[in-house]
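Entry 14. Ran structure prediction on the chain below.
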Amino acid sequence: MADADDVRHLALALPHVAEIDSEGFDFRVADKGFVWSYPERRPGQPRLIRTDIAVLHVGDEAEKQALLLGEPEIFFTTPAYDGLPLVMLHLAKVDVDRLRELVTDAWRMRAPDALARDLDADSASHNPG
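Output, structure tokens:
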């Protein structure tokens, strides 16, 4: 089971990541968000920052639908995110290895190519073929 501390550890392990001061967690690369706490909107009440749920940037609508349909117990969305390449993830329903994959993929979707090459070079140096 993963949690907000795991998100923070994994996100900050990626190159060129900045953590934005927030009630929960909020990580950016090149000033673009790639994973953050879910700001649950409740009618007539202030939004609730849910650190047990992460919002992840995904590649496109097809990837979003594949995650939502393939693993509905883990991923979900709300009408506020319709048309956006974002999914919500129940952190307690994934292990840290899966979370690492998801956070890294989200980072790749937002990082400029030059920064993504930094990650690829770093990975290659740690995993010689």
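The mean pLDDT is 91. Will compare against last week's run tomorrow.
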